[in-house]
Prior knowledge:
This protein is an alpha+beta fold. The protein has one helix and nine strands. The protein has one domain. The chain has one helix at 69-86, and strands at residues 10-11, 16-19, 25-28, 32-34, 41-43, 48-49, 52-56, 59-63, 66-67. Strand 7 and strand 8 form a beta hairpin.
Amino acid sequence: MPPMAATDTLVTPGPATAVGADGGAAVVERRSYTCDVCGATFDGAPGGSGLLVWTRGDEVRYEEPPLCDACAVAVSTTAMLGWDLDDGDHE
């Protein structure tokens, strides 16, 4: 299986300045993402990621789009509830 490639929509609001270890100004680049579910833009680490898998011929492609905190919880909760409901004994 090929390694999974994480992708994200990067929004660059511009560099921020901070004080470096030597007391001088240091440029710090903040990463911003766009949630793949609701479209909200947020700074910092994603709350989670989705998993999209598709094929083209013999090639299998994986994409892990970023999710905001609220959508990560909603998607994982919905998936777990669906999995739990599907685990029932079928006659």
